[in-house]
Automatic annotation (TrEMBL):
NCBIfam families: dnaG
E.C. numbers: 2.7.7.101
Subunit structure: Monomer. Interacts with DnaB.
Pfam families in the cross-refs: DnaB_bind, DNAG_N, Toprim_2, Zn_ribbon_DnaG
Protein name: DNA primase
Region (Disordered): 609-632
InterPro entries in the record: DNA_primase_core_N_sf, DNA_primase_DnaB-bd, DNA_primase_DnaG, DNA_primase_Znf_CHC2, DnaG_bac, DNAG_N, DnaG_primase, TOPRIM_DnaG_bac
CDD domains membership: TOPRIM_DnaG_primases (cd03364)
Gene for this chain: dnaG
Purpose of the protein: RNA polymerase that catalyzes the synthesis of short RNA molecules used as primers for DNA polymerase during DNA replication.
Length: 656
């Protein structure tokens, strides 16, 4: 329907925004100045105690400095009453004494029909309620008694009963003069496929009226009394009044309770909502037999910026929660999110309230986790990340999910939260795979069980201590100094830093602080390091001669040079560790004769050392460099030679 020019301007000028808003809020008399139309109150769109919601009555606009909600009288009515634009205009026009323009005939016809259908639905509500008092409903009343719904509760929720008869409601409505087509259009009966008389949609069921935000009865939900019925719960079919994906059970009362500060709770079914309401949690709603839709999610956010999803503690409830994450991620906005309170296994909210009382449920609500934690749990629970490939797969999956978030600020915060959770996970030892330690492959031999701990001979090796430890320490110092000078490159080397063992305690502390705080900038990172290790820690690090002469330290802020330095030093650390581990494993195998695989491994190590010696690379006086970039001290070279000289070679049996 189109409105004539100037109609909305006149409506806005006539409607007092402070009066419209005043029906939903309590003004802060200390901050408000009614004479100037400058009014303040706690925001009706989010929970708060301070008065951060401002209404400028003269300009006709409102703004919340907390959740940033803003608009005029029409948008306020739309948001608080959960109505469409034209319905909001009609409400305000009626209050302002303005006559709505003539409507399009077709639109008027549709609106009139919806009103007629709503009247038919009210007749059905009254008829079902009367049937609950009959003898045929004795079993239904007994069931409601067992569920704790006394007569007062039944009246509050307008619970009724549909007798197990084919035309019980049909005949009653026909007796009231309702036409066949209206009964069918209301979804209260279905046409016979055999050409006979239409039959009732609901038979042998406890009936729960479903009302919209304006309080109109728009549909029913029916709970079957027959345990063998194919559908335990049955909702009305979609009609001109009822769109299942745009409706919520108890939305009107929940909106009022949420406006008074109660948290908005989302349960799975009617009985959960009723149980929560009886326990004092009045801002409770439920979707109507399906997973939450985008429209329902937007409805929830109009009531409360952070609804709490209280799904059942069974596998179906958990799957529903995880599906909701995928729906919500692209729709997130600043101040709009979800929290999740998962019920104990095998329980729904009604079960928990009966077993443990409102206090236990409140505790669960207080401990509801933000959506990012549930996303992390979904991608990591029950999985082992004991290889680079598995870690990379996790990173890819999480990155794809986070990229669905359209708001760049929220996307950034999600990324940082995931990074913190990742850091916590990978700093802990990963559990061994089922069946014990993973078998190790020996080249030239067969699969063998990896040793559970290093042998004494390995611990005593010069390759584990001595010069190699000093070399590692020097490289670590250069890496840490380079990244503290250019913390923006830390994310690129996150995996390498996580795998850097750091024998020196100060290096380990500095590494962990970089992983956690580099994204906050150089200033914050330096403060964290100073607080943990003392004000001179960074100066002591960068003043060491081998660090101070590093090009990226001499040229602070050169990101490209710092990146190259860190990449090179991490690669050399990894290569050196690989060489040391190869020799250490060889030493462990020296408790007897060696096979050709061991000989091959040691020969390759010697060949690398010889190539490094001939290449004449860095630090010739003290070190040789292998072809893979690992620095080999002369002591290590001597150890390699000694190992080879002492090998007694035996060809494995069965080989020619």
């Amino acid at each position: 329907m189109s409105l004539p020019p100037g109609f909305l301007d006149e409506l806005r000028s006539r409607a007092s925004l402070s009066q419209v808003v005043g029906r939903k809020v309590t003004w802060d008399q200390r901050k408000s100045n009614q004479g100037k139309g400058d009014m303040w109150a706690p925001c009706p769109f989010h929970q708060e105690k301070s008065a951060s919601f401002h209404v400028d009555d003269r300009k006709g606009f409102y703004y919340c400095f907390g959740c940033h909600a803003k608009g005029d009288a029409i948008s306020f009515v739309r948001e608080t009453e959960n109505v469409g634009f034209m319905e909001a205009v009609e409400i305000l026009a009626g209050e302002a004494g303005m006559t709505m323009p003539a409507r399009d005939p077709k639109a008027a016809e549709k609106a009139d029909k919806r009103n007629d259908l709503a009247e038919v639905m009210e007749l059905a509500v009254r008829w079902f309620r009367l049937q609950l008092q009959t003898g045929a409903a004795a079993e239904a009343r007994a069931y409601l008694d067992r569920r704790g719904l006394d007569e007062k509760s039944r009246d509050h929720w307008e619970i009724g009963f549909a007798p197990d008869a084919w035309q019980g409601l049909w005949d009653a409505l026909k007796g009231k003069g309702v036409s066949d087509q209206m009964i069918l259009d209301a979804g209260l009966a279905k046409p016979s496929s055999k050409g006979g008389k239409p039959y009732d949609t609901f038979r042998g069921r406890i009936m729960f009226p479903i009302r919209d935000a304006q309080g109109r009865a728009i549909a029913f939900g029916g709970r079957a009394m027959d345990p063998n019925d194919n559908a335990k719960y049955l909702n009305s079919p979609e009609t001109a009044l009822f769109d299942k994906g745009r409706s919520l059970y108890n939305v009107r009362e929940a909106r009022v309770a949420a406006g008074k500060g109660q948290p908005l709770l989302v349960a799975e079914g009617y009985m959960d909502v009723i149980a929560l309401h009886r326990a004092g949690f009045e801002a409770a709603v439920a979707p109507l037999g399906t997973a939450i839709t985008e429209n329902q999610l937007q409805m929830l956010w109009r009531i409360d910026p952070e609804p709490i999803i209280t799904l059942d503690g069974d596998s179906a409830g958990q799957r529903a929660a995880l599906r909701l994450i995928d729906l919500a991620l692209p729709l997130l906005e600043a101040g709009r999110s979800l929290r999740f309170a998962m019920m104990p296994e095998g329980q729904d909210p009604d079960d928990l309230l009966k077993a443990s009382g409102p206090g236990a449920f409140q505790k669960l609500i207080d401990e509801a986790v933000p959506m990012v934690r549930l996303l992390w749990q979904r991608e990591t629970e029950g999985r082992v990340f004991d290889s680079p490939e598995r870690k990379a797969a996790l990173d890819k999956a999480l990155r794809e999910k986070i990229m669905q978030i359209k708001d760049p600020s929220i996307r950034s915060h999600y990324g940082q939260e995931i990074k913190d959770l990742r850091w916590q996970l990978f700093r802990r030892p990963q559990p061994a795979p089922r069946g014990g330690a993973r078998p190790a492959f020996r080249p030239g031999g067969k699969w063998q069980q990896a040793p559970m701990a290093p042998l004494p001979s390995t611990k005593a090796s010069v390759l584990v201590g001595g010069d190699q430890a000093v070399t590692d320490h020097l490289r670590e110092a250069v890496i840490l100094a380079a990244i503290t000078g250019c913390p923006e490159i830390a994310a690129e080397f996150e995996s390498g830093l996580e795998g850097m063992p750091c024998r020196d305690r100060n290096h380990a502390v500095m590494r962990d602080l970089i992983l956690r705080h580099a994204h906050e900038g150089a200033g914050v990172l330096r403060e964290k390091i100073s607080a943990a290790l003392g004000p001179d820690a960074l100066e002591n690090l960068t003043s060491q001669r081998h660090v101070a002469i590093t090009p990226c330290i001499r040229n602070p802020g050169d990101i490209e040079m710092a990146t190259m330095t860190v990449a090179e030093e991490l690669a050399k650390l990894a290569a050196a560790r690989g060489l040391s581990e190869e020799i250490a494993e060889a030493e462990e195998d020296m408790a007897g004769a060696a096979d050709e695989g061991l000989t091959w491994r040691l020969s390759e190590a010697v060949r690398s050392a010889d190539q490094a010696r001939r290449s004449g690379q860095e630090d010739k006086a003290e070190y040789e460099v292998s072809d893979n970039g690992a620095r080999i001290s002369r002591d290590e070279r001597s150890a390699l030679d000694a190992l080879l000289q002492n090998i007694t070679y035996e060809k494995p049996k069965g080989r020619n």
